[in-house]
Write a structure and sequence with these properties.
about 50% helix; disordered N terminus; 18 helices; two-stranded antiparallel ribbon; alpha+beta
């Protein structure tokens, strides 16, 4: 595993420094930059043709009768009794077809009943003609298409029209952004949320949505910023869930174990609970018991006068891993014999000598360890700043292959990606490099 990590880092350094001619190869780049489902076209925001509607004027008696019917319908509407409210609003519209308030209440009752979606849409369409500056009819149609009929893309023109008529309304902007996101238009959703951020300060959901889009794009630092701004107003835990995940992926690990534990305690039914539990587990000290058994087959034990076994123990790593050899013993048939190791030799290995009385065709050395590991959290790891690379020396190192044309094409392609360049580079290298043998020194080429 250590060799693999070294090779990955060598490759990363090489392509970040590489110079050369561009030689793009589609299948080669696809290993490092897998295609995401691209938005092949912009969303269609054209409203369908609306039928002209010119209601005739009525006398005051009919209008007043319509007002009476409308008021009676409103009482039933407040109670949620749509079955009685809808006929009253319909009769009010018959009395005065030119009164938008009657038609709006009818459309609202039809929409809220949940059983008259098509009739509600037709009523809202008439209202769009009667009251072209009112955002509510087009917003109402958008809600029916989006929520009730699950026709997300068809809802976009109506939500967009409502947003143009009422650009200062954060609810309309948020709903349009959500519809963009659900329809697969992430960039349009993100642009709208950024544009209206100043209107959305009191609602955590838009910033949660912004953070989720950044997470989906693997752009973790902006995701952390967006989600952090909504934490104080999150009463259900959905923002905290995404925030913990964003910080973990961004490598912002210091203090995250305690924060993750606090979120799990505060929101016991939180979404993605199992993921947060795994994150918390990876960030806390871990005690492990490890048994290692070395088996030695001897064809003819009588020819052996001495047998030593050199063993590399699991590494002791300050601030990260503490290893204790609790027990070591030789096993030969039914015989067990405790053995003490020698002091570490120059290469760090320790020696176990087997007594001749144990020599047999099959002999085993069993080692039992107690290991405690601590996660490396940011600057707390035992790391020292690497020296600045000497470019001229690296150019002559065959391992790096800085003049490789394919490497240069990959570097150019990564330059075009949005977000953090180093993060994008690590992600690309992790996806694209596959080894069949970890303990071989591969060149970048």
């Amino acid at each position: 595993m250590r060799r693999r990590r070294t090779d990955l880092l060598v490759f990363l350094v090489a392509f970040l420094l590489c110079k050369g001619s561009c030689f793009a190869q589609e299948n080669f780049l696809a290993r490092f930059l897998p295609r995401k489902e691209a938005e092949t076209q912009l969303p269609n925001l054209n409203l369908p043709a609306l039928q002209a509607f010119s209601p005739a004027a009525v006398d005051s008696d009919r209008h007043n009768h319509g007002v009476s019917l409308n008021n009676e319908g409103l009482e039933y509407l407040k109670e949620g009794n749509f079955k009685k409210a809808i006929p009253l609003f319909s009769k009010a519209c018959d009395e005065d077809p030119s009164e938008p308030a009657f038609l709006f209440n009818l459309a609202l009752a039809l929409k809220n009943s949940g059983h008259n979606s098509h009739e509600a849409i037709e009523a809202f369409k008439k209202l769009m003609v009667m009251s072209p500056k009112d955002y509510q009819p087009s917003y109402g149609i958008g809600e029916i298409l989006f929520e009730q009929m699950k026709k997300t893309k068809e809802s976009l023109p109506f939500f967009s029209h409502a947003n143009k008529l009422k650009p200062e309304d954060p609810k309309v902007a948020t709903t349009l952004a959500l519809a963009y996101f659900r329809a697969g238009y992430d960039e349009q959703s993100l642009a709208l949320l950024k544009q209206n951020a100043h209107l959305l300060q009191n609602d955590p959901y838009p910033f949660y949505l912004m953070g989720i889009i950044f997470l989906k794009q693997e752009n973790y630092i902006p995701a952390v910023r967006a989600l952090k701004s909504a934490l104080d107003k999150d009463k259900e835990g959905f923002v905290h869930d995404a925030y913990i995940r964003a910080r973990f992926f961004a490598g912002q690990l210091e203090g995250l174990a305690e924060e993750c534990a606090g979120v799990l305690k505060r929101f016991p039914a939180i979404i993605n609970k199992s993921i947060l539990e795994r994150i918390h587990f990876s960030l806390i000290p871990l005690d492990v018991s490890l048994t290692e058994t070395i088996t030695i087959s001897i064809k003819d034990p009588t020819f052996i006068s001495r047998m030593d076994v050199l063993v590399s123990l699991p590494p002791e790593m300050p601030s990260h891993q503490h290893v204790l050899l609790e027990n070591s013993e030789w096993i030969s048939g039914e015989k067990l014999l405790a053995v003490n190791p020698s002091s570490p030799e120059k290469d760090g290995k320790i020696r176990f000598s087997a007594p001749p009385q144990l020599f047999s065709p099959l002999i085993q050395l069993r080692l039992k360890y107690s290991i405690r590991t601590f996660p490396w959290l940011g600057s707390k790891g035992p790391f020292s700043p690497p020296p600045y690379p000497k470019i001229e020396e690296m150019k002559s190192d065959e391992t790096f292959c800085l003049s490789n044309a394919k490497l240069h094409s990959l570097s150019l392609a990564l330059d075009k990606l949005p977000g953090n360049a180093l993060q994008n580079s690590f992600l690309a290298v992790g996806r694209g490099l596959v080894y069949k043998e970890n303990y071989k020194d591969y060149t970048v080429e």
